[in-house]
């Protein structure tokens, strides 16, 4: 499979002479190979662990979520370096899943990568004997540059297992009745879908009744969590909180669901969840159990709750940002400044022997300019009718969150972007 990936991944492969022999990650050196694609700007983020920094909005949100599950194990110390097998195969990802590609994921080498989701640790956590747990961690995905996307973000994964026995299912049925009664007394309207259906099936080997009971428990627990996060917040008024469940597909759960909340006039996707794949539990050596799991992105929810307009702000060390947040509180962020944009375009011909994935370009810009880039947009693409050469044009919006950028400074940064673009990808600037 890795051989196939090398044909699809970053065009950096055509310029392997620029690749260092080793990568230093948190004091340890790892050999590189043709799959290596982690830039220094990403490696520098690994030690920061924003979700553990006191009073940081992500840490505050994490604590709020954990407070809804006081009897769960609360985990947050796993290294982000995992094997591709752990990140994908243990969770039943198909071999042709796009997430395996080096255009989507960061690889240290063919045997080691940066996790793309907290689910990468499901098997080891279950294997360690945890049956009720929350795991918070930083995750890494190659992505576009704009106000809501960043290559490093943070997830909370939660899971709960039940004995697959008649007595345990009887107890679960009673627990579900209590959850349902509590929610009926709350100011919440839930648009539900069937727990199991032909398009969202029970897994082979699972009893339908068990799957339905577990799914009902999952829905009750998450409706309660969402109410705690969003209910009664500023902008909600006295209107009931509206939540809707939607059938979904994930490689590691079935049946699977996405959950949306109507908040401040918009439907917002909040999380994904479902009944844990039996193959995952089998791999972990867990016998005669059935359970649920969910995963949510902290940045997405924090941006909504705190009214934070740009995802880059989470990485700011500016006291004007950090001083606005206190442990245990959700307060509306007050913008302290809006500095002017500086747009720079770059047009180029692609080399005949290789392409350029948009994530390659975004990684390069980010590696040069860091968080001085607000967004990157492809504004033109065409193929010359005579030569057959392909051309691309990108517009880079440079804007600091903390200060005004001079045109001279921006020009120097952009020149460095163009220089690396020609050196690393062999493009011809137009």
Automatic annotation (TrEMBL):
Its EC number is 6.1.1.20. It comes from the Eukaryota. Residues 337-430 form the FDX-ACB domain. It is found in: Mitochondrion matrix. Residues 61-335 form the Aminoacyl-transfer RNA synthetases class-II family profile domain. Keywords: Aminoacyl-tRNA synthetase, ATP-binding, Ligase, Mitochondrion, Nucleotide-binding, Protein biosynthesis, Transit peptide. InterPro entries: aa-tRNA-synth_II, aa-tRNA-synth_II/BPL/LPL, Fdx_antiC-bd, Fdx_antiC-bd_sf, Phe-tRNA-synth_IIc_mito, Phenylalanyl-tRNA_Synthase. Its main location: mitochondrion. It catalyses: tRNA(Phe) + L-phenylalanine + ATP = L-phenylalanyl-tRNA(Phe) + AMP + diphosphate + H(+). Pfam families: FDX-ACB, tRNA-synt_2d. GO terms for molecular function: phenylalanine-tRNA ligase activity. This is phenylalanine--tRNA ligase. It comes from Marasmiellus scandens. The lineage of its organism: Eukaryota, Fungi, Dikarya, Basidiomycota, Agaricomycotina.
């Amino acid at each position: 499979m890795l051989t196939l990936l090398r044909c699809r991944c970053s065009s950096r492969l055509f310029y392997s002479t620029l690749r260092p022999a080793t990568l230093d990650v948190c004091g340890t050196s790892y050999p590189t190979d043709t799959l290596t694609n982690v830039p220094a700007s990403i490696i520098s983020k690994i030690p920061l662990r924003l979700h553990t920094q006191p009073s940081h909005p992500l840490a505050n949100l994490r604590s709020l979520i954990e407070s809804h599950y006081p009897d769960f194990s609360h985990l947050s110390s796993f290294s982000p370096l995992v094997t591709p097998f752990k990140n994908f195969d243990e969770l039943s990802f198909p071999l042709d899943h796009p997430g395996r590609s080096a255009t989507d994921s960061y690889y240290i080498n063919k045997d080691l990568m940066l996790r793309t989701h907290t689910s990468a640790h499901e098997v080891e956590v279950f294997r360690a004997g945890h049956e009720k747990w929350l795991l918070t961690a930083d995750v890494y995905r190659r992505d576009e540059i704009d106000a809501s996307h960043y290559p490093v973000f943070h997830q909370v994964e939660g899971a709960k297992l039940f004995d697959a026995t008649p007595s345990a299912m009887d107890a679960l049925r009673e627990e579900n009745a209590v959850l349902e009664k509590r929610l009926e007394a709350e100011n919440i309207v839930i648009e539900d879908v069937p727990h199991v259906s032909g398009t969202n099936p029970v897994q082979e080997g699972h009893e339908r009744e068990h799957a339905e009971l577990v799914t009902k428990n999952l829905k009750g627990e998450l409706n309660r969590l969402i109410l705690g996060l969003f209910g009664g917040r500023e902008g909600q008024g006295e209107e009931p909180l509206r939540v809707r469940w939607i059938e979904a597909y994930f490689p590691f759960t079935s049946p699977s669901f996405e959950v949306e909340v109507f908040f401040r006039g918009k439907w917002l996707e909040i999380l994904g969840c479902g009944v844990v794949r039996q193959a995952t539990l089998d791999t972990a050596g867990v016998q005669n159990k059935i359970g649920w799991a969910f995963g949510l992105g902290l940045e997405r929810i924090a941006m909504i709750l705190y009214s934070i307009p740009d995802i880059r702000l989470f990485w700011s060390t500016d006291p004007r940002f950090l001083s606005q947040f206190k442990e245990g509180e959700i307060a509306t962020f007050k913008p302290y400044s809006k500095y002017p944009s500086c747009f720079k375009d770059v047009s180029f011909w692609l080399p005949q022997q290789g392409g350029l994935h948009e994530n390659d370009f975004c990684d390069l810009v980010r590696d040069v300019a860091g968080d001085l880039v607000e967004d990157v947009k492809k504004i033109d693409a065409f193929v010359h009718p005579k030569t057959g050469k392909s051309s691309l044009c990108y517009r880079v919006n440079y804007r600091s969150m903390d200060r005004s950028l001079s045109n001279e400074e921006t020009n120097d940064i952009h020149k460095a972007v163009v220089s690396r673009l020609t050196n690393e990808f062999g493009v011809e600037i137009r």
